[in-house]
Amino acid sequence: MSEPHGTQESATYDVVVLGAGPVGQNVADRARAAGLSVAVVERELVGGECSYWACIPSKALLRPVIAVADARRVDGARQAVTGRLDTDGVFARRNRYVADWDDSGQARRVKSIGADLYRGQGRLDGPRRVTVTRDDGVRRHLTARHAVAVATGSRPVLPDIPGIAEARPWTNRHGTDSGTVPARLAIVGGGGVGVEMATLWQGLGSQVTLLVRRRLLPRMEAFAGELVAHGLAEAGVDVRIGVRVTALRRPDPAGPVTLTVDDGSELEADEVLFATGRTPGTDDIGLDTVGLTPGSWLDVDTTCLVRGVNGDWLYALGDVNHRALLTHQGKYQARTAGDAIGARAAGLPLDDGPWGDHATTADQHAVPQVFFTDPEAGAVGLTAGQAERAGYRVRAVDLDFDAAQGANLYADGYQGHARLVVDLDREILLGVTFVGPGVSELLHSATVAVAGEVPLKRLRHAVACFPTVSEIWLFLLAACRREHEQTRTGS
Fold it and tell me: What topology does CATH give the domain 10-47+103-155+280-362?
């Protein structure tokens, strides 16, 4: 899709958005709903990392793997699963969901909300000004009356270790757009990308070795990483915890790669994937022209205004503000900031107090995250350790899922674990973690409970349907009540 018909060398809009991924599209949509004119600038594919190399393709690829694993847990169904996954069919499914990396449909969506799309590298050029440089060198100069919103995302970080350039490692992009299955795949990193890629490629037929320095899923409760590690090992992944890669060798570009780890041993693989962190996509967007450091994470207030910039005009949304590198959380920020931009433009008062219409309060208190491993791991809010470090008096209430009959009907011999983090002073939930097959569908109920600060006394009246996996709520809340009574009576 080309630029707006008749575009001149310069144009003025109420709002200019850098980045046309889900976050940029959401802030553009909310600004348009407020009656503001909007320009959206994108240097790659409209739809961003999430649509083509992250959330969408990874989940499209993972679903067949998990579906087969689920079937094998149900007697009568497992006997019907007699072969391996059809990798061509799995890759074709992924290709459909990413529209074969054709962004024309998403470009039409940008147009449908009434925004103008500019393709090229967008850079700030002083306050409220953006220069867009197309691939052919043509430049367009845009001025924003009210706001510039930075939604340029993040990209993977590769560690500085000997031989990494020679090894030509995969990142999340190669991990989700590859159309071939490596016989042996080494994955470095135990965060969300690492464990999902291990689940995916082992399921597709690779022999996967997962190399982790500390523990899996370090931002979640420790038991989440332990159960996911156990599930990966049962699936055939060689999980090695407490190791560090010190060097790589790949003398033949078409040959295998050799990894050296810190105990001096070596591992040979056909490909190596690094999932070792992200860096903000802010190195080439002109931050220096407004007094900020290129390549830095952008510090923002509750409305996502960037601190350290004069005037209420520069916003940073999604990965670039480093609050939560999750698409759904970035979209939440974008909706909130878009409403704040509209209110400021209209001269209306801001509702930016805790849980207000123009405040991203959930960024601090109720961020949900889920990893589509086998078993799945989902959490919202604070872990018990995080809550204690924040000064709360808390109690962790733990329960295995085998207490719920619905879980055992979902999967024979269902294995999973749940934890509630209870604020003892207010008798509300500060955090919830679930690990087990299908628990991603339980996470929103937990998010409502945490974000809504629903008192436990009231939450007990939310009746779970029988027989469903969500019955675990009944048993968790009963355990909370028993522990509360024991504490009260001193028994």
Answer: FAD/NAD(P)-binding domain (3.50.50)
Cβ–Cβ < 8 Å for 405, 335 = no
User: Would you say the C-alpha torsion 68, 180, 103, 304 has a positive or negative sign?
Assistant: positive
Q: Cβ(218)–Cβ(211) under 8 Å?
A: no
Determine if residue 209 is labeled as part of a ligand binding site.
no
Please provide the DSSP assignment of 352-376 as one string: -STT-TT--THHHH--EEEE-SSSE
Does 319 carry a binding-site annotation? yes
Q: CA nearest 358: which of 302, 278, 298? A: 302
- Please tell me whether 153 is known to bind a ligand: yes
Of the options 3.40.1160.10, 3.40.50.300, 3.90.1640.10, 3.30.390.30, the CATH number for the domain spanning 375-489: 3.30.390.30
**Is 190 annotated as ligand-binding?**
yes
Using left for φ > 0, alpha for ψ between -120 and 50, and beta otherwise, residue 463 falls in beta
- pLDDT score of 1: 41
Q: Would you give the DSSP letter of residue 483?
A: H
Tell whether residue 152 is among the known ligand binding residues: yes
Indicate if the alpha-carbon torsion angle 418, 420, 421, 424 is positive or negative.
negative
According to the annotation, is 262 in a ligand binding site? no
- Tokens at 392, concatenated: 């709360």
**Alpha-carbon separation of residue 345 from 15, 126, 263, 423, 434 (angstroms):** 10, 20, 60, 39, 42
Would you say 192 is a known binding-site residue? Answer: yes
Q: What is the pTM of this model?
A: 0.93
Topology given in CATH for the domain delimited by 164-276: FAD/NAD(P)-binding domain (3.50.50)
| Distance between CA atoms of residues 345 and 146, nearest Å | 6
Q: Which two tokens stand for residue 174?
A: 């190669």
Q: Is 193 annotated as a binding residue?
A: yes
236 is an annotated ligand-binding site residue = no
For the stretch 79-97, pLDDT in tens is 999 889 999 999 999 999 9
pLDDT at 488 over 90: no
471 assigned to a ligand binding site: no
Ligand-binding annotation for 318, yes or no, is: no
Q: Is 154 annotated as a binding residue?
A: yes
Domain ranges for the chain, please list them: 10-47+103-155+280-362, 164-276, 375-489
**Sequence-distant (≥ 6) Cβ neighbours of residue 405 within 8 angstroms:** 466, 467, 471
312, pLDDT greater than 60: yes
**In angstroms, what CA-CA distances link 139 with 3, 16, 24, 363, 466?**
12, 15, 21, 37, 62
List, for residues 395-421, the tens digit of each pLDDT value.
999 999 988 889 999 999 999 999 999
Handedness of CA 353, 380, 329, 35 (dihedral sign): negative
Is 189 marked within a binding site? yes
